Amino acid sequence: MKDISFRNDVLPLKNVLYRLALRITLNREEAEDIVQDTLIKVWNKREDWNEIESIEAFSLTICRNLALDRLKKAENQNDSLDETPTERADQASNPYEEMIQKDRISLVRRLVDGLPEKQRSCMQLRDFEGKPYKEIATILGISEEQVKVNIFRARQTIKQRFKEYDDYGL
Predict the structure, then answer these.
(1) Chain centroid, CA 101 distance in Å
(2) Are 24 and 120 spatial neighbours (Cβ–Cβ below 8 Å)?
(3) Given this model, what pLDDT does residue 76 score?
(4) pLDDT digit string (tens) for 17-35?
(5) Counting beta carbons within 10 angstroms of the beta carbon of residue 13, is it exposed (0 to 12), middle (13 to 18) or buried (19 or more)?
(6) Distance (Å, rounded) from C-alpha 26 to C-alpha 22?
(7) For residues 11 and 101, what is the distance between their CA atoms, to the nearest angstrom?
(8) What is the gyration radius of the CA atoms in the chain, in angstroms?
């Protein structure tokens, strides 16, 4: 019998849940609300925790479903993730290179935001959260093969669109 603790097993998932909700809704406040709602729903199911194979997959599934529900209700008013802080891929040696780097990161964010929801979620969970295909399949309720196809298509689309932008200038 596994002993799941809200403090040690569920609360540490807050950031992963937030990033997934943000990828789906593209709205910071909405994502924060979804994380709160997710944590409440997971807490309310605490009697069933020992029957759950992975509390993380369970929590991510609830988070994704809540985010999709909110998205349907809001009729998808796609705000951008431009407000999110830009990570530094590597230290640019001058302001011009730094500006180009920020533009490219911003472009990739916009391209990811423009993907269909399933591709966005698969890419978020695999490339940004490092989840295995099997866990992603469980979270999204699709087969591992569908996860791989979605990730492949998402990466191809990002690569192709990035190249188009790069060829014609940002």
Answers:
(1) 22
(2) yes
(3) 40
(4) 999 999 988 889 999 999 9
(5) buried
(6) 5
(7) 34
(8) 18
Q: How far apart are CA 77 and CA 55, in angstroms?
A: 31
Which of 70, 93, 88, 91 is closest to 23 using CA atoms?
A: 70
> In the structure, how many helices (H) and strands (E) does the chain have?
7, 0
Decide: 129 and 20 in contact? Cβ < 8 Å.
Answer: yes
The one-letter amino acid at 162: F
**Which residue is associated with the tokens 């533009």?**
103
The token duo for 98 is 């730094």
In contact, 79 and 134? CB cutoff 8 Å: no
* C-alpha distance from residue 149 to each of 37, 68, 127, 159 (Å): 30, 21, 14, 15
| CB neighbour list of residue 51: distance below 8 Å, 6 or more residues apart | none
Residue 67 tokens, joined: 């985010």
The answer for 12, left when phi > 0, alpha when psi is -120 to 50, beta otherwise, is alpha
